[in-house]
Amino acid sequence: MAKIPGKLALHGTVLGAGLLPLGVLLFGALTDRLDANPIEHITHSTGKWAIRLLLLSLAVRPAQRWLGWSWALPLRRTLGLLAFTYACLHFLTWLVLDQFFDWEAILEDVAERRYITMGFAAFLCLVPLAITSTRSWIRRLGRRWISLHRLVYAAAVFAVIHYLWQVKADWLPPAIHAAILAALLAARFRFRTRPVSVAQSPGGS
């Protein structure tokens, strides 16, 4: 049997680990083992994993600079696309299962409920990042690709605010996410003067 290249095995491991919560969620849905409100459970679970994976993608660059983990740099794209996958499922659960394509109610929610406004803004930021995540788009956009993919920081900020504003009682989990994001943003500004080439940025800025 041919030996699997290290990079491929690493990406496969990260992809499998990233999809594991989705598998658990699907198993729970198929076996009727979710909470009393399954739609709410799916919505919250997919949203939390979208934020966690997004924060993990932002943590790769500081880990490379502080710990010398250069091997982790290509994982940013994988983690970012996993975050987008969960964000899509989070959005679709709300759009289809919660709102039943009631466009009037959807527009009203986006306009009047501030945590939904923030969540929608985060999702809109992620869409162009997912579309332009391929190497062909990196070559096509050149340096503009780096500028575009700085939207990931806005997406993370909006997503964490969405989480904070959505919670009614247990503030600790979103507060922890906010603290992690603050540390990652501080790391970003700490190293902002160091140039980053397009070739070094296959998965995010």
Helix and strand sequence: HHHHHHHHH
Record field, number of beta strands: 0
Q: Please count the helical segments.
A: 9
Our measurement of the CA-to-CA distance between the termini, rounded to an integer number of angstroms, reads: 37 Å
Return the average pLDDT rounded to an integer.
Answer: 87
Count of separate structural domains: 1
Give the fraction of residues assigned to helices. Answer: over 70%
Overall SS class: mainly alpha
The percent range for strand residues is under 5%
Largest sheet: none
Structure description:
With 205 residues, this protein is mainly alpha-helical. It is built from 9 helices and no strands. The chain has one domain. Helix 2 runs antiparallel to helix 3 and helix 8 runs antiparallel to helix 9.
Keywords:
single chain, 9 helices, mainly alpha
Q: Gist?
A:
The protein is mainly α. The protein has helices at residues 6-30, 38-67, 75-98, 103-112, 114-131, 135-141, 143-148, 151-166, 172-190. Helix 2 packs antiparallel against helix 3 (75-98) and helix 8 (151-166) runs antiparallel to helix 9.
List the helices and strands and how they pair.
Blueprint: H1 6-30, H2 38-67, H3 75-98, H4 103-112, H5 114-131, H6 135-141, H7 143-148, H8 151-166, H9 172-190
Helix pairs in contact: 1-2, 1-3, 2-3, 2-8, 2-9, 3-5, 4-5, 5-8, 8-9
